[in-house]
Amino acid sequence: MSHTAHIPSHRKPRQRASKTALRAGVAGGVLSTIAVAGAAGPAQAEPVTQTIEMPTITAGLSTTVAASAQATQQVALDLETQADEDAAAATAAKTAKKAKAEAVRKAEAKKKAEAAAKAKAEAAERASRTAERTTLSASSGSSSPSYSSNATGSAASVIAFAQSQVGDAYVSGGTGPNSWDCSGLVQAAFRTVGVDLPRVSQSQSTAGTQVSLDNLQPGDILYWGSAGSAYHVGIYVGGGQFVGAQNSSTGVVQKSLDYDPPSGAVRVL
User: Which of 186, 191, 202 is nearest to 237 (CA)?
Assistant: First the structure.
């Protein structure tokens, strides 16, 4: 036995003959196939090598996005502008409303002041008239010239009622039966003949046809002051005399027109 028999050999193990033949056959077949393909190659169509470019959408997309962003920004600006305009309009409306209310308040205050001034002036004039009547009454006595009216019909009834109240007290707002103010007496006298006059002297001074003081008839309504704003009224009884509820000092009296000349007269009957 050799001294190297126990050392493994570094040679590759021998392959069996069958495996070697099989590999050779396979290789030969492959080479044959390549040879056939090479021979048939020139007769076939050349492969398509044209490059197809796909459309690029990146540029269009960025443009669309930019336009959309710009439109959104414009909408936001429009909304902000509209909000500012609405706020300004609301402020202006509020200011105008406040100014109008202030103007109305001032107008009403002015109107009240004018009415108060007018009433004060009328009261002063009435007080002056009252003082004058009182002085005349004290100097001439309380007796009135006696006169029996020759009026007929409705005028006679009005005069008779007024004369029957001579001596009654004067009370502001009085409408009888034993105390009167000037317009209350005149209204009650005409009511006896079915004539319904307004309650106050201002309205009574325009209740009929205006007549001249030179053309008076018994039953005419006399007034002091301006027509429509008279502060005193009485009834003409004829003979240059009238009956009226003058003031708290004299009460209801019958006096000559010279005692307190009236400003005008209206005829109702």
Answer: 186
The string of pLDDT tens digits covering residues 95-139 is: 888 888 888 888 888 888 887 777 777 666 655 555 554 444 444
Residue 211: which domain range? 147-267
pLDDT at 69: 81
Calculate ∠ Cα 215-220-221, nearest 5°: 120
For residues 74 and 227, which has the higher predicted lDDT (pLDDT)?
227
* Interatomic CA distance for residues 166 and 62, integer angstroms: 110
The mean pLDDT value for 16-44 works out to 47
- In this structure, the dihedral spanned by the alpha carbons of residues 182, 183, 185 and 188, taken in order and rounded to 10 degrees, is 180
pLDDT in tens, 179-226: 999 999 999 999 999 999 999 999 999 999 999 999 999 999 999 999
Q: Is residue 154 situated within a structural domain?
A: yes
* 190 & 93 share domain: no
Residue 20 lies in a domain: no
- Give the integer Cα–Cα distance in Å for 129 and 225: 11
Q: How far is residue 199's CA from residue 175's CA, in Å, rounded to a whole number?
A: 9
DSSP string, 200-269: SHHHHTTSSEEE-GGG--TTPEEEESSTTS-SEEEEEEETTEEEEEEETTTEEEEEEGGGS--SEEEE--
Last residue of a domain, one of 141, 174, 196: 141
CA atoms of 35 and 32, how far apart (whole Å): 5
